[in-house]
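Query structure, 411 tokens:
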């Protein structure tokens, strides 16, 4: 097979199907890191942008948050999708820049501080045991994604928000439709209008939650958001439901993808699984390696506010840049043997959570969930193997495995 041209390789980052084909994706990204680390991309249906594939360049952009802003294009979408989203007036933390971003981030910050997360650990450990028991009760063969990894983190985030467990099927449907909007199996329909309706349905759900918490505040994150004020003024309805939508989707799908991808990595690398099982003290390092390996958030976008140079490439004011986290986390200049899964990898400078002022608000919670689940699973897992072909979500934003058929023995 001949290597793709630089233009073809650059267009790969805008192709959802490429993220469901890791061999193809990484071949293109490896080529870009080597020959054109800041590449101009002109893909059909998209407004032009620069693909940034080197770790150092990604970090340079993340550090210069005044020079490279989230607004107006924080996520890669088609030109038509960008128009429709603007019409709906969505504005979450990922759409904001300072000082607005800093003020809005503070609304839920206390829920992700160490003291609060420490209080949550017992509940997370309980949910981890429930889901390992669910795996045991499945009878030795199941789709790990459907049985475990989609529901465990969703139960955790619903506990934080104070949403009743009876609403889990509805929340699962809404989050999967949003994150899977580019995947033929998960999307509501192939029409853009119907995909936007999935977002509007989530907004309607959280509008009801907002009204309930304003009328009868409770001790949960939903009440904190519903009754928050910024600069002495209450959040308007769009800002409130946008906040919920971000917490629900980001708090669920990224962790779900990492747990599923981590499980596959442990199956594909049995020696590493044995190392971790024999020494659970490696779990912090293994957790970081799973996050790097999966990189559930594939990319974010930034826009240059003035003319500048990045990696030797001139960038004009108004140009958009795609920060390819999945490429940065395989950068040969930063990671020794980057395509090796190593549960003891030290000094793991992955960019899966971003960096700087936009560093993931829920990073510590995600780490706790991943660690809790595998700390419960591995001592009880006697054997495990694939029972079919794993399948990845087609996406350009957030995603991972949508099917992981496994066969196993479990205490």
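Result returned for the query:
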């Amino acid at each position: 097979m001949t290597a793709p041209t630089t233009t073809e390789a650059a267009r790969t980052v805008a192709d959802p199907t490429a993220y469901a084909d890791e061999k193809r994706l990484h071949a293109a990204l490896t080529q870009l890191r080597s020959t054109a680390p800041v590449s101009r991309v002109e893909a059909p249906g998209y407004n032009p942008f620069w693909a940034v594939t080197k770790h150092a360049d990604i970090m340079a952009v993340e550090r210069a948050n005044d020079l490279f802003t989230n607004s107006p294009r924080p996520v890669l979408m088609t030109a038509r999708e960008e128009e429709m989203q603007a019409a709906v007036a969505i504005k979450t933390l990922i759409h904001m820049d300072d000082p607005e971003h800093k003020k809005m981030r503070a609304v839920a910050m206390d829920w992700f501080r160490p003291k609060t997360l420490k209080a949550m650990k017992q509940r997370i450990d309980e949910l981890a045991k429930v889901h390992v028991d669910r795996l045991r009760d499945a009878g030795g063969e199941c789709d790990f994604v459907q049985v475990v990894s989609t529901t465990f983190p969703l139960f955790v985030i619903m506990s934080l928000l104070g949403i009743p467990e009876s609403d889990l099927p509805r929340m699962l449907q809404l989050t999967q439709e949003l994150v899977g909007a580019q995947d033929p199996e998960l999307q509501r329909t192939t029409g853009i209008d119907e995909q936007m309706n999935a977002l509007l349905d989530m907004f309607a759900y959280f509008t009801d939650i907002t009204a309930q918490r304003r009328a009868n505040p409770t001790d949960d994150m939903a009440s904190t958001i519903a009754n928050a004020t910024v600069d002495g003024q209450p959040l308007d309805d769009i800002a409130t439901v946008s906040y919920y939508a971000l917490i629900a989707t980001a708090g669920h799908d990224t962790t779900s993808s990492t747990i599923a991808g981590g499980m596959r990595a442990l199956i594909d690398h049995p020696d590493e699984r044995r190392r971790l099982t024999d020494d659970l003290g490696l779990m912090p390092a293994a957790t970081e390696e799973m996050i790097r390996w999966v990189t559930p958030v594939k990319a974010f976008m930034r826009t240059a506010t003035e003319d500048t140079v990045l990696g030797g490439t001139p960038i004009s004011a108004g140009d958009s840049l795609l920060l390819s986290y999945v490429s940065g986390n395989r950068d040969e200049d930063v990671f020794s043997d980057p395509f090796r899964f190593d549960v003891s990898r030290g000094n793991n400078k992955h960019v899966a959570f971003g960096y700087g002022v936009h560093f993931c608000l829920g990073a510590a919670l995600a780490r706790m969930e991943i660690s809790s689940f595998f700390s419960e699973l591995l001592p009880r897992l006697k054997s495990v193997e694939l029972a079919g072909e794993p399948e990845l979500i087609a996406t350009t934003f957030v995603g991972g495995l949508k099917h992981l058929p496994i066969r196993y023995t479990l205490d």
